[in-house]
Amino acid sequence: MPGENLSRDEARERARILAVDGYEVALDLRSATRPDEDTFRSVTTIRFRSARPGAATFVDLLAPAVDSVVLNGRALDPAAVFDGTRIALDDLAAENVLTVDARCAYSRTGEGLHRFADPEDGETYLYTQYEPADARRVFATFEQPDLKAPFTFSVTAPAHWTVLSNEAQAGPARDADPSSSTWDFAPTKPISTYITAIVAGPYHVVRDHYARTFDDGTVLDVPLGALCRASLAPHFDADDIFTVTKQGLDFFHDTFDYPYPFGKYDQAFVPEYNIGAMENPGLVTFREEFVFRGKVTQAAYEGRANVILHEMAHMWFGDLVTMQWWDDLWLKESFADFMGAYSQVEATRFTDGWITFANRRKAWAYRADQLPSTHPVTADIQDLQDAKLNFDGITYAKGASVLKQLVAYVGADAFLEAARRYFKRHAYGNTTLADLLAVLEETSGRDMAQWSRAWLQTAGVNSLTPEAVYDGEDRITELAVLQSAAESHPELRPHRVAVGLYRRAAGGALERYARAETDVTGSRTVVAELAGAERPDLILVNDEDLTYCKIRFDPDSLDTLRKHLADLSDPMARALVWSAVWNMTRDALMPARDYLGLVLRFAGRESDIGVLQSLHQQARTALHQYASPQWRAEGARALSDGALTELRRAEPGSGHQLAWARFFAAVASSAADLQLLSGLLEGSAKIDGLEIDQELRWSFLEPLAAAGEVDEAVVAAELARDDTASGRRHQVRCLAARPSAEVKAQVWASVVESDALSNALVEASIAGFDQPGQEELLAPYADRYFDVIERIWSQRSIEIGMAIVRGLFPRYRITQETVDAAGGWLDAHQDAAPALRRLVLEARDDLSRALRAQAVDH
Known about the structure:
This protein is an alpha+beta fold.
């Protein structure tokens, strides 16, 4: 639909003439419990002003039907003014009142108002998800971030439900009829449309509160809530969620010197969620996978805490002060990503958060920044489809890394004082890059223009390599840092870095004995402070991870790491080295078999569980995509043997044992491996301390299904043990993984030719369909993929379109023929949607990278 993809120019023009005074939104959700009814009633009244009386504009609405439109008392013909995406308005007055009575659709894609039926108890659960522009699926709206306004919501729903919105209830729920009630909510502060929210259903709710007395005697009391589906209540650890929440609120109050601005603070864990979480003020929504049904590693709890704090940081960065348009999406996401790690380390038990950031979060950024679609942190977002795809590793993780570099550059005090001034100056308003730079210049005394141009307005990642010269007595006469950049993005940036010198101690540990902090500029920078130091075994550039760069090694350092990587006693240094050798593997500078050799020799000694799980994930990618096809079977045997050895060696009952168990299942390749997995499922085999809970059972069952060792009846029996929402997703994935042409045809049809599946089941189907080692079975779908993706993009919602285009790309058919097919599609579809072309371009680039890696793996 042409009107669905709002452009930046259209938004700017509308903002020039309009100011919105408020919304009143009444939703009737009583039909939600009737599966045969697909719509609900939505009545919206918008009060707004026009700077140009007599002008025309439009209101956004994606709905099956509009029953009435009344502008300033004048009834408009819905058939004449509504085209399915917009309501045309003309002859505006200086002050206007618009009322739209519409029938909006319940969602199965996680966009708009999502409806979910719990298979355990048959109850219905609803929640909204809007970013960047899906509030228009629920009510009529001026759908752009800079037209902020107060919102007053009223919701009618079954009487036994819990109904929540951004603000607290204005009073007790009113009876609507014998079986339903109406909840009226207080007006919100001025906020953007995309962060309004409704959660409704028989949710399990736990209550608490947060209290804080400030230095001036002001008392802040914030009601806290934590919600999940009733069937998940036995697994819901609300106390830990509240602990992190209170620690975060304390930290942000101390750091930002601006009280939490939105009254209550509810956190709802909801089913079939497309993203990690969403920062709706007063009502944050999270994917319910953060409610752990089985045993997980400490990294999972750390990850959840990081997301809680990330969303909390948004209450200031993003909700209180909001970017004007999606060009400056980084103004909220980069800051929230940075502050999530910063607050986690400073305020919670997860004091190794920066290690996770350096090793795992930055890997996302490095990949995104080397794709042909890379973009500056401040991006050029022409429309909403552009915006949707820019929720990526650059906007989040690179932006956060850049902010970490900024803190090293201007100092933490100047950075945080700039944040305080920014909130006070722009509260409840909208900003651009210039507004942030202005306060940074004030507090740091530095000219931020050059820094901004280098770090925020150019794309690409630099590589830093040490170069050392020694005298006859094995002392450094000169140590320099060489900086390089890709030809496509040649910017050499200023880097504040620490350079560490490491050598082996008497006990064998590899420890730092000298360090210097310096500003790297240009292609070569001499680190004068380290001249005269004894010859090191390892030179680590970007020690402590102050900047954003790819680390390289001199030959002596690389030789040391091949022999002694696990001897690095500092976990941050190890994490940085692991990240560096992974980047070298991706860049075809280290053969995949060499990287896998490092994993096999040293991963078993890795103490940081998050780093270990990253190594497991990267090892699978190295094996299936970067390793030579001729060596892959040998590599698979080595990896599965090594995983089993470490599984048996790990401390019984530990997180490391659990991580190795999951990894072993993922790489199991021999008949003996599969027999062991079957034995563990049946109880005939045991590994001391390994508890086979339901989630681990599914992890063991999938590789058995993919290998053809279990049939549909076995999967059905497992579902009977776990007939839950999670169990059904696992069932769909296992069934789709089976090595059968008939199975693959059925899965393809269910995903591509039908829209009956929910977003969660589409995701599960694709994950099962696309199995490494099944290239021959999947070969017929490579050509079909290129035949259908433009139709998919035009007919499905953008969320489902992205899932299918990304997920069904033939990524394991790593041949020049596939690269050429993608290139041929791009050449023949120059006029396809830019966002669709971007997805294909990125997938083609991943294939080309894999081919280069395979070429050096010998």
